[in-house]
Specification:
Order of helices and strands: HHHHHHHEHHEHHHH
Strand content: under 5%
Helix content: 40-55%
């Protein structure tokens, strides 16, 4: 063991022996040790520096992945929305919307499917941001796919009451989401919890509706349009099940009855026994705006009979009918109509799940967008 004392003193070793050393030799030894110490420090600093760079790179990578995750998450994960969002700021928000929707649906049952479609059409264009509500000469509301939607006055009535109760708090986008859920419940469907906290969009353009799913889209196109919103094939089949309530104008499907694909005959997917019924409702050259139930016998009742009708060749619009004739979607249709005596509980549960997922497509939260004072115009 070596005991270093002052540079001018003797260095003792164990066992004791007298070792005489010069001052210069001792200084050289100390300097050498100092150099070694500095070398070790340098190496240590280099290691720390290298480690710091590695940590920094890892942090940067994590931040990037987090950003990407949040960007994708807004498609359907509910990032930025949550349950009980208005619990403190506007505790009666949900009950006020529910009351307004109930009154409207009881007075006019066709309001329910209108509000459900409105939510779907809103979410598929720039996310669930109530851009479909804005008035103007070239807004989403004026686009062809939205021209027959109904229920806008219900949203306005709910907003008016909410502004009286808690001004500047509840977004129009959240009102649309709640109204869609309440419409399903009022027609016999199962309820689900709605995540809230959406903010209202600032832009509404009719041209942006071009990518809405159309009544004559092939299955491959439908799958792609849903996938673009982070929704899978099961979500597609589930959400289209919302057609169990509501109607379609003859103009959207009469081509299937008389001259499908220029064949001078009907669409072969239509059950021959169902064809006369549709032709009686929509005669060739007749009223193009006449409404026909999308789910025969169940246009005001939310249930899984829609899928059974698809299986039986009783799908009214082409895009619906193709869900049964294409193997990619048929298995989900089969899963939902169930067997004899089944009530469609699986469909009801899955519909709520899919609505939550769609309801968080590209939502605006935090400082994005605004809380409109009236739903028909930006602030």
């Amino acid at each position: 063991m070596v005991d270093f004392q002052s540079p001018t003193k003797t260095i003792y070793t164990n066992p004791p022996c007298n070792v005489s050393t010069s001052s210069s030799h001792l200084r050289y030894t100390l300097l050498n040790l100092k150099d070694k110490s500095l070398t070790h420090k340098s190496l240590l600093l280099m290691e720390i520096s290298s480690l710091s760079k590695t940590v920094a790179l890892l942090v940067l990578l994590l931040a990037t992945l987090t950003t990407l995750s949040l960007g994708q998450g807004n498609r359907g994960s509910g990032s930025g929305t949550r349950l009980g969002y208005y619990r403190s700021s506007c505790p009666r928000a949900e009950s006020i919307v529910q009351s307004v929707v109930r009154f409207a649906v009881q007075a006019n049952p066709t309001i329910a499917p209108g509000l459900l479609r409105m939510f779907f059409h809103d979410c598929f264009v720039n996310g669930c941001d109530a851009s479909i509500l804005i008035d103007g000469p070239s807004t989403e509301k004026t686009a062809g796919p939205n021209s027959l939607l109904r229920g806008f006055e219900v949203i306005d009535a709910a907003k008016s009451q909410l502004e009286t109760t808690c001004p500047g708090v509840v977004s129009c986008a959240d009102i649309v989401a709640l109204a869609a859920r309440d419409s399903v419940v009022l027609t016999g469907g199962r309820s689900w919890q709605v995540r809230l906290g959406r903010r209202d969009g600032l832009v509404s353009q009719a041209s942006d509706t071009a990518n809405l799913p159309a009544f004559n889209d092939p299955i491959s196109v439908q799958i792609r349009k849903f996938a673009d919103k982070g929704l899978n094939t099961q979500d597609l089949v589930t959400l289209v099940g919302g057609h169990t309530i509501g109607t379609a104008a003859c103009a959207l499907f009469s081509y299937r009855l008389y001259n499908f694909n220029n064949t001078n005959g009907p669409d072969p997917d239509i059950n021959p026994a169902f064809l006369p019924q549709l032709r009686a409702l929509c005669p060739n050259g007749g009223d193009a705006l006449r409404r026909v139930a999308l789910d025969t016998g169940s246009d005001n009742s939310f249930r899984n009979s829609f899928y059974e009708n698809l299986r039986n060749g009783r799908g009214v619009i082409e895009s619906d009918a193709k869900l049964w004739s294409d193997r990619r979607t048929q298995r989900f249709v089969q899963r939902y109509f169930g067997g004899r005596g089944q009530t469609g509980s699986r469909f009801n549960a899955e519909f709520g799940r899919a609505m939550v997922k769609m309801g968080n497509v590209e939502v605006k939260t935090g400082t994005q967008g605004e809380i409109r004072r009236v739903c028909t115009a930006t602030n």
